[in-house]
Design a protein that fits this description.
The complex is a heterodimer of chains A (448) and B (379).
Chain A (H helix, E strand, L loop, with lengths): L2 E3 L14 E3 L24 H8 L5 E3 L2 E3 L39 H26 L13 H10 L5 E3 L5 H7 L3 H9 L32 H14 L6 E6 L6 H13 L3 E7 L2 E2 L2 E2 H4 L6 H7 L2 E6 L3 H18 L3 E6 L18 H10 L2 H11 L5 H24 L18 H16 L7
Parallel strand pairs in A: 5-6, 6-7, 7-11, 10-11
Antiparallel strand pairs in A: 1-2, 3-4, 8-9
Helix pairs in contact in A: 2-3, 2-4, 2-12, 2-13, 3-4, 3-10, 5-13, 6-7
Chain B lengths: L26 H10 L3 E4 L2 E4 L2 E2 L2 E5 H15 L3 E5 L14 H5 L4 E3 L4 H13 L3 E5 L10 H7 L3 H4 L9 E7 L14 H5 L5 E3 L4 H13 L4 E6 L2 H4 L1 E5 L11 E4 L4 E5 L3 H14 L4 E5 L2 E3 L3 H11 L2 E8 L4 H13 L8 E5 L9 H4 L3 H12 L2
Parallel strand pairs in B: 5-6, 5-7, 7-8, 8-10, 9-10, 13-14, 13-16, 16-17
Antiparallel strand pairs in B: 1-2, 3-4, 4-11, 9-15, 12-14
Helix pairs in contact in B: 2-8, 4-5, 10-14, 11-12
The chains are: A alpha/beta (448), B alpha/beta (379).
The complex binds thiamine diphosphate and magnesium ion.
EC number (chain A): 1.2.4.4
Keywords (chain A): Metal-binding, Mitochondrion, Oxidoreductase, Potassium, Transit peptide
GO molecular function (chain A): branched-chain 2-oxo acid dehydrogenase activity; metal ion binding
């Protein structure tokens, strides 16, 4: 332990003789006041401890605010006794838990939420299969996490600017991105807004305030803070919404973003999808805090933990969080607890690193879709007929969309060189000319 | 020398057919492995095929890497392997079996944070350990750029050699793979070649990978080791089974010729070799050099070759502007100006972000190289 020196207090009354003990430390014995002030070195602070001691010690006006002194040498524990509880409204059977507080959902919104969750599920099933057939190079599903994207999207305003990770296509779906638009991106065809430049699932839509996805993780988070600051400066009645995974919360950018958001008082809503895994890395190898929710307080940000498989809870919490963000012009952090039921992506076989039972449990008993269905059925807003109609029309529509997208041409070769800069610079013009020459000389090397 | 140890890269098809996407991939790789390598056995946590040939075994590149890592752990108890998802074998299977064999204290997953991985590695190395860090894709090395450039590279110099982090090796898969787009295809080697204090090494084949990786791990300097991910499964070669090392900063003439010198590294060499073979049919004799270590690089070998041939062509996947080819070109022009019979040619990636559907157009293909060989020779 080395040399530990207990520094003397400023008041003479409470002066401790400075003691230095090598190898082991002990409490100074020679208090001018009663010995009872010295307490054993155990336990930890509670707020009442601090209050008790408060009067006895002078508070010091440190930069950033007054801090009171205590005589005990106690460390703040790594966690408070129990885990932060999780806000939920619907039980596993889709019944509203009595006494639970939530934002009342209009029938129209609730039904759209359900329809979009089911659509997302069907999209995932079919696109996954399309990848397996080799028609697209890559895919990644939202399976098990449908309520996170849809529930949150429903609670936001369309003016709120989304900075997504990659497992939130549900937000785009909610905002009206069509099946054809999704498919065009996956096929990288002429109609893809990203001009066939990025891998499948890297959607983006200027019109729908959904900033194009970037594969490098967590980079969107500080960007969302800057964008939020702009909304604030422009007095907009909107916020930015930054999504991330549990894994991404380990990146430096996550911490930079939370700190910036708090300090700049930026209207940004951070939504962390804690789905238990970052590819093969379990959350216990990701952090030893009680998840992500507790990090809010460390940065001076209000936070809440929500059951991510309860669409109604997600909706209510995000609705409330958004009101705080926009109303108070301050960030809020929401940790949604969910589970990545699917493999990480089409390149992953998750049975290599997790138990099938675990996946099955989440898929069978905790799935967000049947849970929400029971609730809307309970309200008389949904029937078996609605269900089968929805599923068959969606499947049909998707098949049609796929056909269209597959037939569509690839983007123009010129798009290889545009958008690198605002204007195409001379080096790229040269390279385009030379490439065209090469294509002429070796047409077989190049797909039509 | 001159033997073609490369499996040809499948020409990338426009209608993306491949099922083995590299986006944090894992299952496809292992799946293909178990079907492509007929008799697969597990030897001390290392996957190798059974066809033994004296002291060598036929294996692919990721298996060769796996063996090198196994040997590094086995021969030095103060060696550690860590990074995102390395515990279960890594998304490219390079660390398969290592955690089981050497324990979780020595082979472990880290939180998802590249700056953390490299900074942690520097500290571990500074305490006298071999720290072998994995960055999942070279495209994701940039959050660690500061730790590499300002820290690892200057740790020794700034302390007057009181401290060093020479035990640090950073492995990262780099390069095109057919469908990786912007963020699963980059070749960022040139950034690191601008940094005195680190070495940059890129192997071209399984045998080279094993020998160079062991040298990099044991070299008393921090090394950034880029692995050609396109070749992880594709390249198969006879690899010595035992512990062996190949020298750093020594280039190798892998094909002798008299009319023009070609210099490259990593996966691009297989494309260059095809171009050399085609040029030969047209009566042009090409000398092909694998640079292997990009800094500090073996100028002498390249210079000697150019003195013989009078012509130089450099090829790399990274964008041409500011690529390492520019440095080689400048150095050779300085040294061989009077001997050069044509301008130095560069056949490289375009000055665009790495594209997706236009990948075949971006790439420095065999025919682009062949055209450049011809125009340089006929200058
Ligand atoms: C900077 C960076 N490092 C590594 C990766 C590779 N990678 C892609 S997804 C992923 C796991 C992300 O996990 P999490 O944030 O929990 O999101 P989830 O996939 O669970 O939705 C990793 C390591 C990356 N894309 N970017
Ligand atoms: Mg996750």
């Amino acid at each position: 332990m080395g040399l530990l020196r207990v520094l003397s207090q400023t008041t003479t009354k409470h002066r401790l003789n400075a003691v230095s003990v090598l190898g082991k430390f002990r409490i100074a014995q020679s208090f001018h006041r009663s010995e009872s002030t010295a307490r054993p070195l155990e336990g930890s602070y509670s707020s009442s401890d601090v209050d008790d001691e408060h009067d006895d010690f002078q508070a010091l006006d440190f930069p950033g605010g007054k801090v009171s002194f205590v005589s005990q040498l106690k460390f703040i524990p790594e966690a408070s006794g129990s885990r932060v509880p999780c806000y939920r409204v619907l039980d596993d059977h889709g019944c509203a838990i009595s006494g639970s507080r939530f934002h009342q959902l209009e029938k129209e919104i609730a039904v759209k939420m359900y329809r979009d969750m089911v659509t997302l599920e069907i999209m995932d099933t079919i696109f996954y299969e399309v990848q397996r057939q080799g028609r697209i190079s890559f895919y990644l599903t939202s399976t098990g996490e449908e309520a996170v994207a849809i529930g949150s999207a429903a609670a936001l305003s369309p003016d709120d600017v989304i900075f997504p990770q990659y497992r939130e296509p549900g937000v785009l779906l909610w905002r009206g991105f069509s099946l054809q638009e999704f498919t065009n991106q996956l096929f990288g065809n002429k109609e893809d807004y990203g001009k066939g430049r990025q891998m499948p699932i890297h959607y983006g839509s200027r019109e729908l305030n959904y900033v194009t996805i970037s594969s490098p993780l967590a980079t969107q988070l500080p960007q969302a803070v800057g964008a939020a600051y702009s909304l604030k400066m422009d007095n907009k009645n909107a916020c930015t919404v930054a999504y991330m995974g549990d894994g991404s919360s380990s990146e430096g950018d996550f911490h930079a973003a939370l700190n910036f958001a708090a300090v700049m008082e930026a209207p940004v809503l951070f939504i962390c999808r804690n789905n238990g895994w970052a590819i093969s890395t379990h959350v216990s190898e990701q952090f030893r805090s009680d998840g992500v929710v507790v990090k809010g307080q460390a940065y001076g940000i209000q936070s809440i933990r929500v059951d991510g498989n309860d669409a109604l809870a997600v909706y209510s919490a995000i609705k409330e969080a958004r009101e705080m963000v926009v109303g108070e012009q301050k960030p809020v952090l929401v940790e949604v607890m969910t589970y990545r039921v699917s493999h990480h992506s089409t390149s992953d076989d998750s049975t290599k690193y997790r138990h099938v039972d675990e996946i099955e449990h989440w898929n069978k008993t905790r799935s967000p879709i049947p849970r929400f269905r029971k609730w809307i059925e309970g309200n008389g807003w949904w029937s078996d007929q609605d269900e089968s109609d929805l599923r068959s029309t969606m499947r049909k529509q998707l098949m049609q969309t796929l056909q269209e997208a597959g037939k569509m041409e690839k983007p123009d070769l010129a798009t290889l060189f545009t958008d690198v800069y605002h204007h195409v610079p001379s080096n790229l013009k040269e390279q385009e000319t030379s490439l065209k020459e090469t294509i002429k000389n070796h047409p077989k090397d190049y797909p039509k | 020398m001159g033997t073609n140890i490369f499996m040809r890269r499948a020409s990338s098809s426009y209608n993306i057919q491949s099922v083995s996407s590299v986006f944090a991939s894992c299952c496809n790789f292992s799946r293909t492995l178990s079907t492509s390598v007929s008799a697969e056995v597990k030897v001390g946590g290392t996957l190798v095929s059974q066809e033994e040939n004296g002291g060598t075994k036929s294996m692919n590149l990721f298996t060769a890497i796996n063996q090198a890592l196994y040997i590094a752990l086995d021969t030095d108890p103060r060696s550690y392997i860590f990074g995102e998802d390395v515990g279960f074998g890594g998304v490219f299977r390079c660390t398969t079996g290592l955690a089981d064999r050497f324990g979780k204290n020595r082979v472990f997953n880290t939180p998802l944070c590249e700056q953390g991985i490299v900074g942690f590695g520097i500290g571990l190395a500074a305490m006298g350990n071999l720290a072998i860090a994995e960055i999942q894709f070279a495209d994701y090395i940039y959050p660690a750029f500061d730790q590499i450039v300002n820290e690892a590279a200057k740790f020794r110099y700034r302390s007057g050699n009181q401290f060093n982090c020479g035990g640090l090796t950073i492995r990262a898969p780099y390069g095109a793979v057919g469908h990786g787009g912007h963020y699963h295809s980059q070749s960022p080697e040139a950034f690191f070649c601008h940094v005195p204090g680190i070495k940059v090494v890129i192997p071209r084949s399984p045998k080279e990978a094993k020998g160079l990786l062991l040298s990099s791990i044991r070299d008393p300097n921090p090394v950034v080791f880029f692995e050609p991910k396109w070749l992880y499964r594709l390249a198969v070669e006879e690899v010595p089974v035992d512990d062996f090392m190949l020298p750093l900063s020594e280039a190798e003439v892998i094909r002798e010729g008299s009319d023009i010198t070609l210099v490259g590294w990593g996966a691009q060499l297989s494309i260059m070799e095809q171009a050399c073979a085609d040029a030969e049919k047209d009566g042009i004799s090409c000398e092909l050099i694998d640079l292997k270590t990009l800094i500090p690089w073996d100028k002498e070998t390249v210079e000697a070759s150019v003195r013989k041939t009078g012509r130089l062509l450099i090829s790399h996947e990274a964008p041409v502007t500011g690529g390492f080819g520019a440095e080689i070109s400048a150095s050779i022009v300085e040294r061989c100006f009077m001997r050069l019979e044509a301008p130095v040619a560069r056949v490289c990636g375009l000055d665009t972000p790495f594209p997706l559907v236009f990948e075949p157009f971006y790439m420095p293909t065999k025919n682009k190289i062949l055209d450049a060989i011809k125009s340089t020779v006929n200058y």
